[in-house]
Known about the structure:
Strands 2-5-8-13-16-18-19 form a 7-stranded mixed β-sheet, with no helix packed on it. It has one domain: UDP N-Acetylglucosamine Acyltransferase, domain 1 (3 Solenoid), CATH 2.160.10.10. It has 5 helices and 19 strands. Helix content is 24%, strand content 26%. The protein starts with a helix and ends in a 9-residue tail after the last helix.
Amino acid sequence: xxxxxxxxxxxxxxxxxxxxxxxxxxxRSALCAAYNADGGAAPEDRAAILSELLGSVGxxxxxxxxxxxxxxxxxxxxxxxxxxxxxxxxxxxxxxxxSDVQIGPNVQLLTPAHELDTERRRAGWEKGLPITIGDNVxxxxxxxxxxxxxxxxxxxxxxxxxxxxxxPAGVLAVGNPARVIRVLDPASTEKGPDYSSG
Length: 198
């Protein structure tokens, strides 16, 4: 394993144009293209592609194409999770998604962080900070989760919210930046999500 890949996996600053990382990106690109192909692969073929593309995929996972990721290898998804159209998972660091998670359309999980120093940013330095999404979380359409964020189980994030800091379990959070507006009744989260808003 090359130095830049080691740095990336350690959460240190690295250069993404490293040949080893470029090769990993080409692998991902081919698998995503096959998964997203017009006319659609059969469900069993899509499941096989996801198993090859991602680090781990639970039983009953549904991801509606198109779906994009950086590497795929650093994404883990639990059982029965549903991801709607146009999900973008930039996994320069691990992205861990629990079981029974509902992810609306156009959601972005973004682990890369870039330098504030202009010269280092121009040179391409970046690092990845892991994202963790707990069991039974619901991310509404267009939610953006920023690098290093953990969202606790049973939490709901309203459509269009930008999550810049950790959210505890069992809350409703909305806005940019997302803020907790109420604690959810644990009994209500057991009934399952209301799908009326995507």
